[in-house]
Amino acid sequence: MDEEYDVIVLGTGLTECILSGLLSVEGKKVLHIDRNDYYGGESASLNLSQLYRKFRSGAEPPSELGKDRDYNIDLIPKFMMANGELVRILTHTDVTKYLEFKQISGSFVYRDGKISKVPASEMEAVRSPLMGLFEKRRAKKFFEYMQNWREDDPSTHQGLDINTVPMSAVYEKFGLEPGTQDFIGHAMALYLDDSYLTRTARESYDRIILYITSVARYGKSPYIYPLYGLGELPQGFARLSAIYGGTYMLDKPVDEIVYDANGKVCGVRSGDEIAKTKQVIGDPSYFHDKVRKVGKVVRAICLLKHPIPNTDDVDSIQLVIPQNQVNRKHDIYIASVSATHNVCAKGYYLAIVSTIVETDKPEEEIKPGLDLLGPCVEKFINVTDLDEPIEDGSKDQVFISRSYDATSHFGTVCKDVKSIYKRATGQDLVLKQRPKQEEEFAE
Predict the structure, then answer these.
(1) CATH code of the domain in which 248 resides
(2) Where are the transmembrane segments (predicted)?
């Protein structure tokens, strides 16, 4: 370990592994350390024994649940948008060759006490119970406007400049009802709360178009998910880094971050060994003095013996409960996958319910989500802090990632990757499209 590196990366969360992969490919000498004996950090997928060790203080899992190897349970549930930034990073780096993906079968929304499918086609929209006949016409005009809008063609703007007007003004123009606004803003644009209504409509436009184009890519839903769980993603980038000379050390304690006389980072100490470096990138758990807490997320990992009721018995779904439907300030998300994704034993389903904590009783806050699951075989509650770095890292060359939030997709993770990349290298992360890989990915 007593060598000099360009970058030392602490923690093998997805953000850290993507960055070590990208920097290794660019010829940087990277050392990657994790105090855990498994990849993924906060974004790991655990087997049954690991899960019980973490949440049941070492108790043995019941034998009827099956074998350890049948389980890859995500600590943090997120799906990938088929046309999203993470897919572009995967294709840009060719990490797709280490992974297999399966589509998530449906996207659902909770409204007026019922679960309804978010329409994935015009036919579904016509039959959807989410809107009455006249509202469907108004919504159709709204979606046509969104899909036909072109920055450089004022005739498509219909008198609205979406770069300056708030999203609420666009809804108003098309006369959309609050319930319709809810499902567009929360189940399609995937906002956690309603603050987006006062921000410029361009941001919502980009998110809605991403959703629509992602659905168009494979039909059914906009989401895809890696077989064997999300823990496969950091491992894929770790393999990429290793191919380009990156060094990995798991189960290695980090005892001290070493700084020079000017306060710049110059090394990382583990026991008696010090590895020298010019920069350090890491997750918040390695830097308690350099991060601030901005909130908490509660997640319930539930093991079921049935698909989630009222969702057409499909093998996987995303279900959004918009805040307004349950008198909250933040949405509740349910992500469900099953044995077909190689994440649990045959006959079992995995549902993870999550939200941003608003009170001192986190478990009660996800009750509306838990109530929709039917009987649970097992339930593990996990409340984690949301941390963000206090400084940008330019002074001490220590670049810290943000905690994984309650969003159900990887948009915020990719934003963080791009931000750290730019701060650490001084350059924007440019993702090139590789047509050949794009085609392979779709097969």
Answers:
(1) 3.50.50.60
(2) none
